[in-house]
Design a protein that fits this description.
This protein has 21 helices and 17 strands. It is of the alpha/beta class. The protein has three domains: 3-241, 2-enoyl-CoA Hydratase, Chain A, domain 1; 266-422 and 473-492, 2-enoyl-CoA Hydratase, Chain A, domain 1 (Alpha-Beta Complex); 427-464, no CATH class. Helix 6 runs parallel beside helix 7 and helix 13 runs parallel beside helix 15 (372-385). The radius of gyration is 27 Å and the shape is elongated.
């Protein structure tokens, strides 16, 4: 057989293997509204950039009936490619081959690809669609090439390269823990589910572990997609905001949006009365480049909004109190949401912008029993150890512990910018007046009128020596200048360096 004949033979085998489990299995995948693994990879990557690895590797023979079902490649598609012209590693479980169940070679391909991504210092995207472990492979064989080894490598890669897990079908047992070790978890409404222990036969799989439940209740889903193509498009969008590794910065994108653009719409959007709510989502979109904001954990802990945007063409992490949910109060879930997002941005050189409009942490016995002290300390810790540029904009209010969640200079913030209407106090003015002037109010002929008088006096110009503002705020700005001021401030802080004592690792309260 000459060279051309061998090339033809390889090409024919390659074409055959690229059909996965065959036409019938592919049709079943399509009927339930899912793309095949190969289709997913090809849609994620820029056209013509996929370099597949280990397509021809042969599964381990077990001398069991399952040997008749196995095909070369062992149900996992893996390799290199580009997204938006930048390299990534990607693997995708092929549900048309033995339900995407993990065998030894299947697992080895995942593990070795993660090793390659770590060595190359490029992001790794994993697409999960698997009915679990293939027991025939692991009855007599150690699981060095399964999720245990994969999870070890994920922890080594954490904070070094971005990791994204796309749950696009079943995800059970150890696979769920591996998925949650990624920086971001995507799920697809109606076709993906995840749980450690399979629910009873009477329970609905999607109620127990579906994408909507995890996006709304557990907080395990960072991005909820409406279908496979939406999931993949959102993944491409997220990657556009991120650097390839922790030694580089996110790419500059010329968005065409004027850095000096004013936002007069703020005057109509945000009421002066801090008790009246407004749409913080709208405020964010007005402020950032081209009104594009990529939100993370949109359906969970909705009293805090977090996500990525560009300001003057550069990526920034946005954290904003949401007056439309719990009045913008912080609570146990939003504390976790903040800490996780801050630590990711800090690991990958993404500056942080805090938009403050909060009456502090949510009071009450329920929150205390859920551990608000422990969870709240995570926000203080994550904000304090972060060394990336941090700028806080105070819209209308920031009381008490809110000053720790939306950090001022005292816990390492770089710049505090305030709208003229903002009140930055140890407690809300009504509470402060009730304590400071309690004797005068109690002894007055009309306590209600006396309270209003004292409140007006408290808020009057020059009546209160407000140490919080003196420490926290570096300038008062016209609200319409918020966008341009943020861009200028972040440019000044772009080269920020901060020396810290050497540590093996920190001991964040968990």
């Amino acid at each position: 057989m000459n060279m051309h004949e061998k090339i033809q033979r390889v090409d024919e085998l390659r074409f055959k293997l690229q059909q996965g489990g065959g036409p019938e299995a592919i049709e079943r995948q399509h009927k339930v509204g899912k793309l095949t693994a190969r289709e997913r990879v090809e849609k994620l990557l820029d056209p013509g950039t996929f370099l597949e690895l280990e397509l021809f590797c042969k599964p381990i023979e077990t001398n069991m009936d399952s040997d008749r079902e196995t095909v070369r490649g062992d149900g996992l598609i893996s390799g290199y490619g580009e997204v938006n012209g930048r390299p990534i590693c990607v693997w995708a479980q092929d549900a048309t081959v033995m339900g995407g169940r993990v065998g030894i070679i299947h697992g080895a391909k995942m593990v070795t690809l993660m090793e390659r991504a770590l060595k190359a210092r490029i992001p790794c995207v994993g697409m999960i669609d698997s009915e679990g472990i293939r027991p025939e492979d692991f009855i007599t064989t150690p699981t060095d090439y399964s999720y245990d080894r994969m999870m070890y490598l994920q922890t080594i890669a954490s904070g070094v390269i971005p990791q994204i897990a796309l749950i696009m079908g079943p995800c059970t047992g150890g696979a769920t823990l591996s998925a949650l070790l990624a920086d971001f978890v995507f799920m697809v409404r109606g076709t993906s589910y995840a749980f450690v222990s399979r629910p009873s036969a009477n329970d609905d799989l999607y109620e127990a572990g579906g994408a909507q439940m995890h996006g709304r209740n557990s907080g395990c889903c960072d991005v909820l997609a409406e279908g496979d193509e939406d999931c993949i498009e959102k993944t491409r969008e997220l990657l556009s905001f991120l650097p390839p590794n922790n030694s580089e910065k996110a790419p500059f994108i010329n968005t065409g949006d004027d850095p000096e653009r004013e936002v007069p719409e703020f005057f109509d959007l945000v009421p002066v009365n801090s008790k009246k709510p407004f749409s913080m989502h709208k405020a964010i979109s007005l402020m950032v480049d081209n009104e594009k904001f990529f939100e993370i954990k949109k359906g969970w802990a909705t009293n805090l909004i977090v996500g990525f945007a560009r300001l003057g063409g550069r990526t920034a992490g946005i954290l904003a109190n949401n007056p439309l949910s719990k009045g913008g109060c912080m609570d146990v879930d939003s504390a976790d949401k903040m800490a996780r997002f801050v630590r990711f941005c800090d690991a990958f050189n993404i500056p942080l912008v805090y938009l403050s409009d909060t009456p502090a942490f949510l009071p009450g016995v329920d929150q205390e029993r859920k551990g608000i002290i422990r969870h709240g300390s995570k926000t203080v810790f994550s904000n304090s150890v972060a060394s990336v540029p941090r700028v806080t904009v105070y819209f209308r209010k920031c009381f008490g512990g809110g000053n720790l969640a939306m950090p001022g200079n005292c816990i390492g913030g770089d710049m505090g910018i305030s709208w003229p209407i903002s009140e930055i106090l140890l407690m809300n003015p009504q509470g402060a007046v009730s304590i400071i002037y309690r004797k005068e109010i109690a002894g007055a002929e009309n306590p209600e009128e006396e309270f209003k008088k004292r409140l007006e006096q408290f808020r009057g110009e020059g009546s209160v020596e407000n140490i919080w503002e003196y420490i926290t705020v570096q300038d008062y700005i016209n609200p319409k200048e918020t966008r341009s001021r943020l861009i200028k401030t972040l440019r000044v802080l772009e080269g920020k360096e901060e020396e810290r004592p050497w540590v093996r690792h920190d001991n964040m309260p968990l």
